[in-house]
Design goal:
This protein is of the alpha/beta class. Helix content is about 40%, strand content about 20%. The chain folds into two domains: about 1-105 and about 260-360, Isopropylmalate Dehydrogenase; about 115-255, Isopropylmalate Dehydrogenase, CATH 3.40.718. The chain is built from eleven helices and twelve strands. The protein is globular. This is D-malate dehydrogenase (decarboxylating).
Length: about 350
C-alpha cells in the first residue's frame, strides 16, 4: 500500500476549518480505495506563529517540509501582520525554495455553481490556467532609493529568465498536446517592451516543436474582456506570475466565486514537495464561525489525488462537489445555504460512500 506523506499548514482565519474537511475527504477516499493511505503531519505556522515568534515559520521549517511529498495549505493572512510579510515569508518562500514553478488553476463551471454571466453554458467555461510561479513580477527584485525624501524612487524589477520562461511555456504546450486542447498565451508586449516581447518570442520558439497544438496569443487587457464575453475562447492558458494571479481571480468570479477556487503549486520533477491550496484567503471576518465554504479546499484535495496518480478518485470528488451544489440541501451561507463547514464536509463524505456502494 502506498502511504503518501503530507505536511498540513492549516494557517490563519478559516484555513484550519476548511482544511479539516479536506483531510476528512482524503481519508475517506483512501479508505474507500483501499490501496493507498495518507499520513498527515500538522505544522502550526502562519500569522499567529509570527505574532508569537517574530517569524512565519521556524528557521529549519523548510528543511522539515522537504521530508514530505506534498504540502496542504489552508490560508495565510491576518490583521496585525502586513500582507507582504505573511505572503513573502511563507507562501512565496515555499513556492520559490521548492521550485514550484508551475501554478495550475482550473477555471471550470461545475454543475450547480453560480455564474454571474448571462446565457453561458457549462461547456463555455472550462479552462486550465498555467501560471509561471517562481519569478516574473513577483521575483522581489528592485530597490527603494532616497526613502522619505522628496526625490524618493522605487524600482520594481520583473525577472524573466530564459530557463524560467521556457520551462513554463513548454509545460503548457505539453499539457495542450496531451489533452488535445488549444493553448493561449497572455502577455502585454505592446507596453512591456522587454519582458513581454521576450515572453512572446519564447512562446513562438517553443511552439515550433509543437506543430500539432493550435495556439492563440492575446494582450492581457483583451484577454480579460474575453474571459467575460467569450470564455469559450480559452482551454489551456499560459501566462506570467502577475497576469496569472489577476486573471485566475477573474476566472474564479465567472466560475462560481472564490469559494470554489483551488490551486496547485507544482515542482514537476518532484525533487521538492508540491503544494495545494484553496486560493480564497483567510477571510478573518468569518473565522471561527463554522460557516466557511470548504468546497475550494475539497477541490484542492482532488488535485492532490490527481498529483498522486489517482485521477479517477480526483474526478469522483469533483462529481460529488457538483452533486452537493445541484442538490442545494447542504451549502454554506455564501452559496445561499444554512449549513456549516463541517456539515458540507460530512455530506461530501456521505456521497462518496454512497457512490462507492452503488458501484460495488
Amino acid at each position: 500500500m502506498n502511504v503518501y506523506k503530507i505536511a498540513v499548514i492549516a494557517g490563519d482565519g478559516i484555513g484550519p476549518e476548511v482544511i479539516n474537511e479536506g483531510v476528512k475527504v482524503l481519508n475517506k477516499v483512501a479508505e474507500l480505495a483501499g490501496d493507498f493511505s495518507f499520513e498527515f503531519t500538522y505544522f502550526p505556522w502562519g500569522c499567529e506563529y509570527y505574532l508569537e515568534h517574530g517569524k512565519m515559520l521556524p528557521d529549519d521549517g523548510m528543511e522539515q517540509l522537504k521530508k514530505f511529498e506534498a504540502v496542504y495549505l489552508g490560508a495565510v493572512g491576518y490583521p496585525g501582520v502586513p500582507d507582504h510579510i505573511s505572503l513573502r515569508e511563507l507562501l512565496l518562500k515555499i513556492r520559490k525554495q521548492f521550485d514550484q514553478y508551475v501554478n495550475v488553476r482550473p477555471v471550470k463551471l461545475l454543475q450547480g455553481a453560480p455564474c454571474p454571466l448571462k446565457d453561458v453554458t457549462r461547456d463555455q467555461i472550462d479552462m486550465v490556467v498555467i501560471r509561471e510561479n517562481s519569478e516574473g513580477e513577483y521575483a522581489g527584485a528592485g530597490d527603494w532609493l532616497f526613502k522619505g525624501k522628496p526625490e524618493e524612487v522605487v524600482l520594481q524589477t520583473g525577472v524573466f529568465s530564459r530557463k524560467g520562461t521556457e520551462r513554463i511555456i513548454r509545460y503548457a504546450y505539453e499539457l495542450a498536446r496531451k489533452t488535445g486542447r488549444t493553448l493561449t498565451s497572455i502577455s502585454k508586449a505592446n507596453a512591456l517592451n522587454y519582458s513581454m516581447v521576450f515572453w512572446d518570442q519564447v512562446f513562438e520558439e517553443v511552439g515550433q516543436e509543437y506543430p500539432d497544438v493550435e495556439t492563440h496569443s492575446y494582450l492581457v487587457d483583451a484577454a480579460s474582456m474575453f474571459f467575460v464575453k467569450q470564455p469559450e475562447r480559452f482551454q489551456i492558458v499560459v501566462t506570467s506570475n502577475l497576469f496569472g494571479d489577476i486573471i485566475t481571480d477573474l476566472g474564479a468570479a465567472i466560475a462560481g466565486g472564490m469559494g470554489l477556487a483551488a490551486g496547485a503549486n507544482l515542482n514537476p520533477e518532484r525533487v521538492y514537495p508540491s503544494m495545494f491550496e484553496p486560493i480564497h484567503g483567510s477571510a478573518p471576518d468569518i473565522a471561527h464561525q463554522g460557516i466557511a465554504n470548504p468546497l475550494a479546499a475539497l477541490w484542492s484535495a482532488s488535485q492532490i489525488l490527481d498529483f498522486f496518480g489517482h485521477e479517477n478518485w480526483g474526478a469522483k470528488v469533483l462529481d460529488v462537489i457538483e452533486q452537493v451544489m445541484v442538490d442545494k440541501k447542504t451549502l454554506t451561507p455564501d452559496m445561499g445555504g444554512v449549513s456549516s463547514t463541517e456539515e458540507v464536509g460530512n455530506e461530501v463524505v456521505a456521497l462518496l460512500s454512497a457512490l462507492k456502494t452503488s458501484q460495488v
